[in-house]
Amino acid sequence: MAELEIAHVSKSFGDIEVLRDVNLQISSGEFVVFVGPSGCGKSTLLRMISGLEPVGRGEIRLDGAVINEVDPAQRGVAMVFQSYALYPHMSAFDNIAFSLKLARRPKPTIAEKVANAAGILRLEKLLARRPGALSGGQKQRVAIGRAIVREPKVFLFDEPLSNLDAELRVQMRAELMQLHDRLATTMIYVTHDQVEAMTLADKMVVMNGGVVQQCGRPLDLYDDPDNMFVAGFIGSPRMNFVKAAVIGRGPDNIALEGPGIGRMTLPFRGFDAATGTVHLGIRPQHVGLHVGDRDNAVVWTGRLAFAEELGDVTYVHGDLPSGERLVLRSSGGRYAGARDLAAVIDPKQVLLFDESGARLRPAIQ
Amino acid sequence: MSDTLVAHRPAISGWTLLKWAIALCAVVVAVFPIWWMVNVVFAPPGEPVSINPRLYPTSLGAGLEKIRVILAETDYLRAYYISLAYSLLTIGGVLLIGSMAAFEFALFDFPGKRLIFGVVMLSLMVPTAVTIVPTYLLTAKLGWLNTMQGLVVPGLASAFGLFMLVQFMKTLPREMLEAARLDGATHFQLYLYFALPLSRNALVTLAILTFMRTWGNFTWPLIVAPNPQIYTVGQVVGLFNSPYSHQTVDVVMTANLLAALPPLIFFLIFQRKIVEGIAMSGSKG
Questions:
Q1: Contact B179 A50 (CB under 8 A)
Q2: Which CATH number does the domain housing residue B141 bear?
Q3: Do B270 and B153 sit in the same domain of this protein?
Q4: Is beta strand A211-216 parallel, antiparallel or unpaired with respect to A340-345?
Q5: Which of A82, A83, A148 should we substitute to test contact with B (largest number of B Cβ atoms within 10 Å)?
Q6: Same structural domain, B19 and B108
Q7: Where in chain A is the domain with CATH 3.40.50.300?
Q8: Domain assignment present for B178
Q9: How many domains does chain B have?
Q10: What confidence tens digit (pLDDT) does each residue in B220-237 have?
Q11: Residue A62 needs a FRET pair 20 to 30 A away by CA distance; which of A79, A165, A225, B157 works?
């Protein structure tokens, strides 16, 4: 159980700044997921916590003590690598026991700890095998076992499931959640897969371009993103974005006009008069096919590009007159080859962003 | 039915035949002298060169008797011991120094790494004939003439070995070494528990090459150890073959055969080790 604090941490490789002023507070026992596209600096941050990468500027504190200069092995962290990084010339038992052997622990203790870890991970029958004779999922479990026996204060996972096939990934994800419940240790997990991040995280840290974009509970980030990047990154299919000009402001609403959407009015309290152009963000499930004649509905029209029929839902992809892509979710119904699209949107679900991508939130009453 | 099977067999072309014929000629050229050596040793004296020569060994007893004579009546056994010590010490030293240096060069960064490695690699381009005199003078200055260290030490720095091991160790997965560091392995333990065992194939290959080189080395022992007490097998065989030697051909051949045996045995043992290999699939892929 340990509290981890990352304070004003930056890192550059030559001229390239990969992390910029990262500040994070990770509470004891939390499952934190760093998520972001490739090259966003999430793995570098994890490696700095592990000690494998020197900290550029700033401090990393574990339980209040600065660990910037502490040897990786002495930090009380254990890491599970994307490539498993097992020792190919040692059996699964020796892989798991290696750190204990180096620490000169008595043999009965080693056997007991390895047996305990193997029990948790259902590896008992595989302990004599070498990594070459294990499947991907088994190798990953051995790698996790190697981390467990060290009884670390913080577990670090660097994209541990990305080499597994889809089915096994779902299974291992469930196992990781159970493992976290069982060990109740702080875990930091890096992934580029937002589904993994949403399902595993107590706290999700969305990163892009070396900067923490937003940090919080997964559903909070989903419902209330701080900027267009977070709004677009979380959720699949991604949120629709449409550009519009503000043509009128009332106390409780604004009037918008755009090439893709025509004219429309949105409820919005206390709109900043200085903002002239906005991006509207709306998730596919809040856009529907326009059927019948609902007079008050806000309808956007365009050309239908293609439909993804997944059985339970159908995602209809269309192009607005402005060329912007609009994805909507329709449950049930079969695509009959129509070319014209009339989408009805729910104005209450529309999020507004300014031109720089930052979220515009209505004033609280 | 058999017709269709025959139709699928690749036709033997004239080119294939020619290739096989050339290959067989090469084998005969390579193997015949060795076969002739065995033939001469394991036959009554004179028989293989008589008017009615035999192309196969006829007498095991005659061969064993010649071997007994050589081992008992000459200093061949001592030369064997010297050569073996010379070879094994050189192998041990080359592997130890080469693997340690390669570990650093392949897996870590330090100031001047590229320059130093470049200088070592440059030495590959300098022929032995150029360095042999300065090396001799240095060895003499150290008082190492006619000593085992005089034989062994100058051969320990193997630029080729370093190059080979560096190339091999560069392929070791970095994440595995990082995992070991997190597990608490010290720098030396990384070398001992990972670099060494995982480079086993390269080390065995280097050991074989080094053995062949040292066992067959004639020039360096000849100039640095002129004392008969420290003659290697190569030098002793040289004596058997010398113009004023009174040995007959079959005894000379026996000496040659005894000299050729250890490399043959060494190769046969370790060739299997190379093929065996070790499971190298701890990482993905």
A1: no
A2: 1.10.3720.10
A3: yes
A4: unpaired
A5: A83
A6: no
A7: 4-233
A8: yes
A9: 2
A10: 999 998 888 899 998 888
A11: A225
Is the same domain home to B79 and B52? no
- Give a yes or no: residue B4 inside a domain: no
Assigned CATH for A240-360: 2.40.50.140
Q: DSSP string covering A300-331, please?
A: EEEEEEEEEE-SSEEEEEEE-TTS-EEEEEEE
- Residue B6 burial (10 A CB sphere; 0-12, 13-18, 19+): exposed
Can you read off the two tokens belonging to residue B11? 């036709």
**Which overall architecture, per CATH, does domain A4-233 show?**
3-Layer(aba) Sandwich (3.40)
Distances (CA, A) of B147 to B94, B216, B226: 19, 18, 10
ipTM here: 0.83
Taking CB atoms and an 8 Å cutoff, what residues of chain A touch B176? 85-88
The answer to whether residues B15 and B109 belong to one domain is no
Distance from CA of A8 to the nearest CA of B (A): 25
Please give the Cα distance from A59 to A69 (Å, whole number). Answer: 10
Closest residue, chain A, to B282 (C-alpha): A88
The vertex-B207 CA angle with B202 and B212, nearest 5°, equals 130
Q: For residue B184, give the nearest of A50, A102, A136 by CB distance.
A: A102
* Inside any domain, residue B285: no
Contact A317, A359 (CB under 8 A): no
CB contact B131 to A (< 8 Å): no
Query: Do A156 and A77 meet the contact criterion of CB atoms below 8 Å apart?
Result: yes
Per the structure, the complete domain to which residue B261 belongs is given by 75-276
The helix or strand, by DSSP H or E, that contains position A13, with its residue range, turns out to be strand A4-13
194-253 in chain B: CB under 8 A from chain A: 194, 197-198
Structure tokens at A221: 């980030």
Contacts of A136 in chain B (CB under 8 A): 284
Going residue by residue through chain B (285 aa), what tens digit of pLDDT does each one get?
Answer: 445 555 566 677 889 999 999 999 999 999 998 888 888 888 888 777 777 777 788 888 888 998 998 888 888 899 999 999 999 999 999 999 999 999 999 999 999 999 999 999 998 888 888 889 999 999 999 999 999 999 999 999 888 889 989 999 999 999 999 999 999 999 999 999 999 999 988 898 888 888 888 998 999 999 998 888 899 998 888 888 887 777 788 888 898 899 988 888 877 787 666 544 333 333 333
B262 and B153 assigned to the same domain? yes
Q: Is B109 on the interface with A (CB under 8 A)?
A: no
> Which residues lie closer than 8 Å to B194 by C-beta, 6 or more apart?
A87, B172, B176, B177, B180, B185
Chain-centre distance for alpha carbon A364: 29
Can you say whether residue A342 is alpha, beta or left, with left for phi > 0 and alpha for psi between -120 and 50 degrees?
A: beta
Query: Contact A31/A180 with Cβ under 8 angstroms?
Result: yes
- The ranges of chain A annotated as CATH 2.40.50.140 are 240-360
Q: Cα B118 to chain center, whole Å? A: 26
DSSP assigned state of A239: P
Query: Which residues of chain A neighbour B198 with C-beta distances below 8 Å?
Result: 88-89
Domain contains B268: yes
B281 neighbors A129 (Cβ within 8 angstroms)? no
Q: Are residues B162 and B244 in the same domain?
A: yes
From chain B, pick out residues whose CB is under 8 angstroms from the CB of A163: 284
Which residue has tokens 């005199």? B133
